[in-house]
Design brief:
- This protein is of the alpha+beta class.
- It has three domains: 285 residues, FAD/NAD(P)-binding domain, CATH 3.50.50.60; 90 residues, Alpha-Beta Plaits; 90 residues, Glutaredoxin (3-Layer(aba) Sandwich), CATH 3.40.30.
- It binds flavin-adenine dinucleotide.
Length: 504
């Protein structure tokens, strides 16, 4: 019996494992693939994900050798979205192949002590009041085909869009799709100039869409999207001829391509799990939501699921979580995914090559030139618009939003919220002269770092309680008056549980 089994060691599973280990929770990661995936679907991490990585001290590792990109596109339209308008500390995205993201997260999970089992596929699942039990089949190696069972207090399905956990737990996955057929190839082009390249570099013709991006010298990602065309049976391997034919249909060009490094097909399935939790089984990442990969959001959404879930699950396992804490994961994250699904459907509709869409694109292009619209959509695709709804938040409070960009002066010197969050614990920033600091430390100091500090550069934030995921649980515009301390105590109890009963 272990604390948590994470089924699926993709980026979301590995990140969740790091979050659980930070909180001292025992975690086993079951990953079907024997070797790390060398191919990258995603290439872009968004501003809110960069905030989260910064809050765990990982940003420099992600940044090394990778470029920031200040813009994003909406439906391939011009003008581009200006991420500089998103505010915050990281108003840009980071161009990094998913394989690098996965490697960094796996190394970190292993370094923190996660038990990572590659070549272990979850093939069965049952649960009762005491545990969730996975049946695991060994893939590859001398014991290939062998099976064993492992029980855990909780099991999280991070096993991708075709999630076995979701199917075995009988969690519905309703949605739409089947209208689009997309083909991807990482190939060598004899004449790269024949295809429009760059970022976003999307060509829209009456027959479909084409994107070509140089990944590295000699390797170009070619991606076609055709509407109203069925995808072949997924079991049929994709061929280079298929991609060549699709490029010819979309562009009218015969493009010579060879040495495919990776070929893949996908459609526009856009689905959301009916619920993210079924007793001891939870879902995160693509297992919980899938959409057409437009706007570089799926991986980002999943990493933010992981940072939302990790500390709540840890609180449940370690016994301090209030009764409603774990269910707040579904309550907070499903609406965020629903909004992304709607927005990616909207982008895909705008990219439809049918000429009846052209006036809509023209009009949308004009709207994008308006500062307010551009800023609204930039916040939407980059995830910085996320604000959770907390019932007990007072008017004007920052509660529900992400930690504000501000400077913090404490006895230990100048710092930032992101630096104080590195331990994965909650953080309370309270005026140094607060009479209640000692009592609050005695009550919640085992779960929350109580820091006597002055917050500078952000109005309305003289005192703050940050959850471990970086979202503001409570704020006070000025010092800690009596009613403010009462509000803080209530918020601490809501998010961090009852105060300890140790000596005061
Ligand atoms: C062409 C394309 C481009 C994209 N670009 C972007 C982008 O720029 N930005 C972005 O944010 N998103 C992008 N995405 C989406 C992104 O790739 C996914 O959202 C992301 O991979 C989801 O991560 P995950 O960990 O939830 O699932 P996955 O990456 O699918 O990982 C699931 C893991 O579970 C394992 N597994 C599956 N079944 C089992 C089992 N039964 N037992 C054990 N292990 C199992 C798999 O081997 C895999 O390692 C793109 C997607 C595509 C197709």
């Amino acid at each position: 019996m272990v604390d948590v089994v994470v089924a699926g060691g993709g980026p979301v599973g590995m990140f969740l494992a790091t979050e659980l280990r930070l909180a001292g929770v025992e975690v086993v990661v079951l990953e079907r693939s024997v070797d790390p995936n060398p191919h990258s679907r995603a290439f872009r991490l968004q501003p809110r994900t960069l905030d989260v990585l910064d809050s765990r001290g990982l940003l420099d590792r992600f940044r090394a050798d990778h470029l920031d990109w200040p813009s994003a596109h909406f439906a391939g339209l011009r003008p581009l979205l200006d991420l500089g308008r998103t505010g915050g500390e990281h108003p840009h995205s980071l161009l990094i192949p998913q394989a690098h993201t996965e490697r960094i997260l796996e190394e970190r999970a292993a370094a923190l002590g996660a038990d990572i089992r590659r070549g272990h596929e979850l093939v069965g699942l049952r649960q009762d009041d005491a545990a969730a039990t996975a049946r695991v089949r060994l893939v590859g190696g001398e014991h290939a085909g062998g099976e064993y069972e492992i029980s855990a207090r909780y099991l999280v399905g991070c096993d991708g869009g075709r999630s076995a956990v979701r199917r075995l737990a009988e969690i519905g996955f309703p949605g739409t799709g089947g209208r689009v057929s997309a083909l991807l190839g990482d190939v060598t082009l004899d004449d790269p100039d024949k295809l429009p390249s760059g970022i976003p570099g999307t060509l829209r013709t009456p027959a479909g869409l084409l994107m070509a991006v140089a990944l590295e010298p000699g390797i170009t990602r070619v991606l076609t999207t055709e509407f109203g065309r069925d995808l072949p049976d997924p079991e049929t391997p994709m061929t280079l001829d298929e991609l060549r034919d699709s490029v010819r249909r979309v562009t009218g060009e015969d493009v010579t391509m060879r040495e495919p490094r990776w070929l893949s097909r996908f459609g526009d399935a856009t689905c959301l799990a009916d619920h993210y939790r079924d007793h001891r089984v939870l879902l995160a990442g693509d297992a919980a939501h899938v959409h057409f990969p437009i706007g570089a959001q799926g991986l980002n959404l999943g990493l933010q699921d992981a940072v939302n879930l990790g500390w709540k699950l840890a609180g449940e396992v370690r016994g301090w979580a209030p009764r409603t804490l774990l269910d707040s994961y579904d309550r907070e994250r499903r609406p965020v995914a629903r909004a992304v699904l709607r927005e990616t459907r909207a982008q895909l509709a705008l990219m439809n090559p049918d000429e009846s869409i052209n006036p809509l694109r023209e009009l949308f292009g004009e709207l994008l030139a308006l500062d307010e619209v551009n800023a609204y959509l930039a916040a939407l695709v980059s995830g910085v618009d996320v604000r959770y709804v907390f019932e007990d938040a007072e008017d004007g409070s920052l509660a529900g939003g992400y930690a504000p960009a501000c400077a913090i002066m404490s006895a230990a010197g100048a710092t930032r919220p992101a630096e104080l969050l590195r331990t994965g614990r909650g953080v309370a920033l309270l005026p140094e002269d607060s009479a209640d600091l000692a009592e609050l430390r005695a009550g919640w100091g085992d779960r929350v770092d109580m820091v006597g500090a002055t917050v500078k550069g952000r109005e309305g934030a003289a005192a703050l309680l940050l959850r471990p995921d970086g979202y503001v649980a409570w704020s006070a515009a000025s010092g800690l008056a009596d009613d403010a301390v009462d509000g803080l105590r209530r918020s601490l109890t809501t998010w961090c549980g009852a105060p300890s009963e140790g000596p005061r």
